[in-house]
Amino acid sequence: MSTETCLQTATELLATWTQESAEPEPGRVDVVIAPExxxxxxxxxxxxxxxxxxxxxxxxxxxxxxxxxxLYHFACGAAIVTFRVRVPREDAKVPSLVSxxxxxxxxxxxxxxxxxxxxxxxxxxxxxxxxxxxxxxVYPLRKDxxxxxxxxxxxx
Amino acid sequence: MATEKFIIPIGPQHPALKEPGHFExxxxxxxxxxxxxxxxxxxxxxxxxxxxxxxxxxEYLVERICGIxxxxxxxxxxxxxxxxxxxxxxxxxxxxxxxxAELERIHSHMLWIGVAxxxxxxxxxxxxxxxxxxxxxxxxxxxxxxxxxxxxxVLGGVKCDIGPEQIDAILAGLEFLEERTRHYxxxxxxxxxxxxxxxxxxxxxxxxxxxxxxxxxxxxASGVPRDIRIDAPYLLYKxxxxxxIVEEAGDLEARFKVRVRELFESYRVIRALxxxxxxxxxxxxxxxxxxxxxxxxxxxxxxxxLFYFIKSNGTDMAxxxxxxxxxxxxxxxxxxxxVGHQLADMPMILAGIDPCxxxxxxxxxxxxxxxxxxxxxxxxxQYGIEWYR
Lengths: 156, 389
Hints:
Helix content of chain B: 40-55%
Helix content of chain A: 10-25%
CATH class of chain A: Alpha Beta
Strand order of the largest sheet of chain A: 1-2-5-4-3
Strand content of chain B: 5-15%
Strand order of the largest sheet of chain B: 2-1-8-9
Number of helices of chain B: 14
CATH topology of the largest domain in chain B: Cytochrome-c3 Hydrogenase, chain B
Shape of chain B: globular
Order of helices and strands of chain B: EEHHHHHEEHHHHHHEEEHHEEH
Structural class of chain B: alpha+beta
Oligomer: heterodimer
CATH architecture of the largest domain in chain B: Orthogonal Bundle
CATH superfamily of the largest domain in chain B: Cytochrome-c3 Hydrogenase, chain B
Strand content of chain A: 25-35%
Order of helices and strands of chain A: HEEHEEEEHE
Radius of gyration of chain A: 17 Å
Structural class of chain A: alpha/beta
Number of domains of chain B: 2
Largest sheet of chain A: 5 strands, mixed
CATH superfamily of chain A: NADH:ubiquinone oxidoreductase Nqo5 subunit
Number of domains of chain A: 1
């Protein structure tokens, strides 16, 4: 399948749940998906055997914007489809994709500890990278993280 | 089920292998029934660090994510930033990037052959492969001045040229390495004792490999045709392509064969590039500040797909740099494939994905009667060797 055909197939598969879409650069399509539609949309790609989930990127839009974005990057050859799932910073929750993609657990553990996005239903919520004594509610890749939050708490 | 537990703590700092990590295996007799993993002992916050440094500084930072495959990190980052800035490195720079990348793959695969052989108790192969690997390390030093963090890249091009003398040295080195590689292929395909440790062990079917989203040689050894150099060519991989190497068996033997056979492709593509090295500049100008945009950059690292997501915000610093290394999806497969195997096979199954590198500094073995015991990597390795003796 050529890259264009791949992207077109994906766009059609995802049409039901697509709120907005954009082509940020050649070979890529970004689609905005609501958190409640995430599992259905991911299942549509996986059931059609459209590529694989290559990474999950957390993106903090900052305290002023008040939102976090979770980007699910699916790759099929050179084509990349990114789901952009927007959640409020104060109540950041997405459903876990573990029922659709069993190996997603590692990606979700990283997202949870670094950004404080709860992946509801994920089987393992243990820390993957951060130390055991890392304080609760401190998420290092959020924009308002500061080292003072760690004073006397982690890594001592 | 658990009654009373006692723990024998060993580690976390002890010198079994180079990098730390923590695995727990539940066993029933000799058979592994569950596995879990804990990483992060060498997490240094590089993604966060890259947000507070300008693009030039961040390139030096990401190049230090990995000592084995530093060049792929720098290349993925440079290609991403160059895309955001709307510039392209000159053809000669791209050719040199690709040559260094393939030399890096050769040194990485040879390092892995040695370590995997060591885990199997086959120290002769370990010694030979590491001796031979010095040849490619010397070539990398000859080109860049460095054995490990070569620092060949700069935003917009490369820092080092390849002249006629170096071409001769590289060609002579490749001839030696190719001959040695034929010997390795013979050993991993025909040595009866070695095959006892690899054939039919750690099998991952094509379906499982696709479901688990594994990448690189680990995927290709299960028949998954996945190689970024072919699927989404970057640098000059379109003009100077490599052939896809796949094996169908999905066991450790297949993982050995894929990596060894890939070396021949690396030799071939380096020779082709050297014979047709484009003339011209080594660098092009790149603006210091970069307009707001997002890009994705993917590279076939020695261990599989390396993924970079870079967001710029109009300043000279990145808003976000996301790095997904190939070991993360591959590590997830270990947790699944380990189940049902002999405990004695664990060192080889872990080494089989070429974790970056043998990311284990201690093992915990949980006996089913509730007794809990910690082992060092060395103890487990020895246990595997004794088991097969």
